[in-house]
Each structure stands twice: as structure tokens, then as C-alpha cells.
């Protein structure tokens, strides 16, 4: 209305831009007041990201709408991996420079085949319109990932970043809107992140079906918390020499009211994504500490989700639980995975240092499935290394894998870490890891996950047996 009263003659598409926001509307009034109402200036103001000097989200929607009906359109949404760490370590000034450098790289890679946009933060998009648009876009994105995989120099600092990319397309048959294509690309981008980052993923209809399942499980999780359908099971760790129980690992179980169970592999990732894992994790800690109080001097091991460790309140909550239950911190061991530590090493080290001050031990879980180096182990100073089942299985199949397992145990010994072999299911595997020098063994060959009451029963049997033999304290533990 302001433009009409001022007598400006704008097209309908340009008029739409006026509704983009209060700041833009104010700027339009200033342009008119000072006689600067050219269409070019208005388009620049509403369609350009000023930091990256490239088209913005509004420009993307407009370009998409201008495409001829029935034309194939392909859209990539990419999110920079590691950008948050750059901002945290070097500040937003360096982060802004990195955004500008990435914008230049995108423009170069797209060239004349596509157009790049900055959507906000560290999110960018690439739009390709025309025949075989999907093939062209995929080629652009693979070239882009290769470029972003190289270090970027900002203020004499070499920064290593990458990108997670989601791809989607609209053909003559479906004629999807730009908003729907963005939604699909966004879903595919998160699949790329979950799969390890620095990769491209095309949208699949399965993603929507999985989303529906996820939403249903999330609703059931909230109800399960209210109805207290969770319980904790415990899998014993035995001394490699004596076979006595020296520790237990707490394992979360979900049993619905109808008696059916839900696998942790299904509901834990969903709980992490929807934010429920923090509340559930605290419940597991509190429950396990209470139940393990009566189990002589054996240790209690509990897995901690990366989501929990990222929460600055977690060490405080842990302290409250230890005080509330009276559980000795020296008997508690938290298991963490390499994924969290690698993705945010500065914050991770800070949080783990606070936890260690309580007297709680830290174990690296699933060792052998990632990329942990000697330097990595030294930086985080774990009290225990847990060898993943795949390493145990492979060591029994070929000499190279066996040498790798032996060297891992030797490194742990040199760093004063205990070593536990996970997933031991046969006598041959038990003999193998025992001979290799593991301190504890965990797996179905000895015990499956059992209830708290069964743990008490097994400990009583071991105590009675050792007392009968007159070796009650021969192994350095009561259990």
C-alpha cells in the first residue's frame, strides 16, 4: 500500500517482496523518501545475503517459481560440518570470513550449471533447472565436497571443514513446490549427517515413512516415561583369570504394558533426537546407583549419551545423584563413545574433567570401530578401554587383526588403562582375549543381561564358593 500511495509502478512479484519483513519495509520507505526507488535496488535489498554477497532464501523461491512448468528442478541443501567449532574457538569474526570463503567456493563450483544461495547461518542451497538437472546437481555436489574437504585458510589459520548434503528433485510428473523440495533436501541432509557427514544423500520416500514411525515412537516414549515402563538390566563383567564378577554394565530396557519389548537400537536414537534421552539417562543413573549400592564392592558401568554430555548441567545432575543415592563415585564408571569426543573435543574434555573430579572413572566404549589414535587416547586419559566385539571376532580369523588387538592392549597398558573385551560368545574367544592380556571379559559366554535380583544371587554364590575355598579376598574383590 505504501508503494501504491507513492506512485511506484512495481510488478506483482516485486510487490511480494515488500511483505518479507518489517526491516525490509522500513528500508523501502527510506528508498522512496530519498528518491531511490529503482527496481534494481529493491531487488538487491530483498534478494541478496549481505554477508555472503550471494542470493538468499527469498531469491531461491523466486527463481524456482519463475521456472517453466514441467521443467526438471533439483535442489541441494548443505550444512557446513564443524562450523560451530570454528565460531566457538576463534569467534564470529573468523566464522563470518569462513562463510564468505565458502560462498566463493560455491559460486566457482556451480559456475553456469547452477545457482548457489545462502539460507542463513551455515546453510547453503544449490538449484539446478533444466534437463538432467539431478545428474548435474549431483556432479556439482561431489566436486564441492572435494573442495570443502581441503583446508581453508582464514587469517593464517588452516581450518578443516566439510559439508553434509541433501538432494531432492521435482520432475514433470509431480511439480513439487520450492518449500516441499527444501523440506525433502533438509531431511536428506540430516541423513547424511547421521551417516558420517561429508557426503550426499538423495531424498527417499522411506524418509517420510521413517519420520512417521519416529513420531509414533516419540509419543510412546513420553507415555512410557509417565507409566514407568523402563527398567534396568545388568550384564556382568568377569575377571579374566578367576571368572568372578568384578563389574556390571547397566542396560536400559523398555517393556510395554502389553508385555512387548522395544529394542534400544530403535528407541535410543529417537530419544536422542527428540531430547528425551537426557531425562531417561538421569533415570538410569539414579536407578542403577540405588540398586548397585548393595552389591559389595563391584563397579557399576553406565553408558552416557553424547546428548547428555553436551548438556552443561549434566555434571551437576550427576553430583546430585551420587549424593542422593550415597553411591561411592569410585565404583562408578561412565562409558562414552568416540563419536562425541571427536565432534566436540574441547567441550568434551572440559565436561569429562569435571566428572573425574568426583572420582568417577571414564571408559572408551566400542574401541576398534572408529579412528581413535594414540594421541587421541592420551588427550582424553581414559581409565578403561573396551574392545568392540568386531575386533574380537576379527582377531580370531586372521593374524593381522590379532596383531592389531594385541597392540591396542599394549598401548592401553602403557597408559595405565584397564582393558575389557566385549561381546565374547565362545570359549575360543574367551581364551583368546585372556591370553592377549585383557583384564575383564564381557559377553554371553559368561552372562547375558540379567535383573538386579539375579546379580545379587550370583554374587552370593561366588562369595559362598570363595569362603568355602578359603580365598575370600584372594582376588582383590569381595564379589
Automatic annotation (TrEMBL):
Signal peptide annotation: none
Protein name: Bifunctional diguanylate cyclase/phosphodiesterase
Bilayer-spanning residue ranges: 12-32
Taxonomy, superkingdom: Bacteria
Lineage: Bacteria, Pseudomonadati, Pseudomonadota, Alphaproteobacteria, Sphingomonadales
Pfam families from the UniProt entry: EAL, GGDEF
Domain GGDEF, first and last residues per copy: 71-205
Keywords carried by this UniProt record: Membrane, Transmembrane, Transmembrane helix
Domain EAL: 214-463
Amino acid at each position: 500500500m505504501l508503494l501504491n500511495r507513492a506512485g511506484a509502478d512495481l510488478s506483482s512479484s516485486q510487490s511480494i517482496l515488500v511483505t518479507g519483513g518489517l526491516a525490509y519495509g522500513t528500508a523501502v520507505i527510506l528508498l522512496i523518501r530519498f528518491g531511490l526507488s529503482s527496481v534494481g535496488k529493491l531487488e538487491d535489498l530483498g534478494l541478496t545475503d549481505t554477508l555472503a554477497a550471494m542470493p538468499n532464501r527469498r531469491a531461491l523461491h523466486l527463481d524456482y517459481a519463475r521456472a517453466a512448468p514441467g521443467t526438471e528442478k533439483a535442489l541441494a541443501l548443505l550444512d557446513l560440518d564443524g562450523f560451530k567449532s570454528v565460531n566457538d574457538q576463534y569467534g564470529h569474526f573468523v566464522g563470518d570470513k569462513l562463510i564468505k570463503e565458502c560462498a566463493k567456493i560455491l559460486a566457482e563450483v556451480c559456475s553456469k550449471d547452477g545457482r548457489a544461495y545462502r539460507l542463513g547461518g551455515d546453510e547453503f542451497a544449490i538449484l539446478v533447472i533444466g534437463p538432467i538437472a539431478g545428474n548435474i546437481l549431483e556432479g556439482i555436489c561431489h566436486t564441492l565436497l572435494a573442495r570443502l574437504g581441503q583446508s581453508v585458510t582464514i587469517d593464517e589459520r588452516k581450518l578443516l571443514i566439510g559439508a553434509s548434503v541433501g538432494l531432492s528433485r521435482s520432475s514433470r510428473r509431480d511439480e513439487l513446490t520450492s518449500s516441499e523440495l527444501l523440506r525433502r533436501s533438509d531431511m536428506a541432509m540430516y541423513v547424511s549427517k547421521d551417516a558420517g557427514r561429508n557426503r550426499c544423500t538423495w531424498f527417499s520416500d522411506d524418509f517420510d515413512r521413517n519420520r512417521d514411525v519416529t513420531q509414533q515412537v516419540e509419543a510412546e516414549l513420553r507415555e512410557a516415561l509417565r507409566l514407568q515402563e523402563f527398567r534396568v538390566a545388568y550384564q556382568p563383567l568377569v575377571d579374566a583369570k578367576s571368572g568372578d564378577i568384578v563389574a556390571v554394565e547397566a542396560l536400559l530396557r523398555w517393556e510395554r504394558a502389553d508385555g512387548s519389548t522395544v529394542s534400544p537400537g530403535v528407541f535410543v536414537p529417537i530419544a536422542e533426537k527428540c531430547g528425551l534421552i537426557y531425562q531417561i539417562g538421569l533415570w538410569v543413573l539414579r536407578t542403577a546407583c540405588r540398586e548397585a549400592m548393595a552389591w559389595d564392592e563391584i563397579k557399576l558401568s553406565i553408558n552416557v549419551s553424547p546428548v547428555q554430555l553436551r548438556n552443561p548441567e549434566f555434571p551437576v545432575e550427576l553430583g546430585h545423584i551420587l549424593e542422593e543415592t550415597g553411591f561411592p563415585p569410585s565404583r562408578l564408571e561412565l562409558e562414552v563413545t568416540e563419536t562425541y569426543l571427536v565432534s566436540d573435543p574441547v567441550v568434551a574434555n572440559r565436561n569429562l574433567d569435571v566428572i573425574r573430579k568426583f572420582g568417577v572413572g571414564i571408559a572408551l566404549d566400542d574401541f576398534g570401530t572408529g579412528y581413535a589414535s594414540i594421541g587421541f587416547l592420551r588427550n582424553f586419559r581414559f581409565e578403561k578401554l573396551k574392545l568392540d566385539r568386531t575386533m574380537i571376532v576379527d582377531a580370531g580369523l586372521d593374524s593381522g587383526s590379532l596383531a592389531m588387538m594385541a597392540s591396542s592392549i599394549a598401548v592401553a597398558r602403557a597408559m595405565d588403562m584397564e582393558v575389557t573385551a566385549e561381546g565374547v560368545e565362545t570359549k575360543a574367544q574367551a581364551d583368546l582375549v585372556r591370553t592377549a592380556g585383557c583384564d575383564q571379559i564381557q559377553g554371553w559366554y559368561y552372562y547375558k543381561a540379567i535383573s538386579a535380583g539375579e546379580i545379587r544371587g550370583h554374587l552370593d554364590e561366588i562369595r559362598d564358593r570363595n569362603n568355602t575355598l578359603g580365598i575370600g579376598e584372594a582376588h582383590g574383590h569381595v564379589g
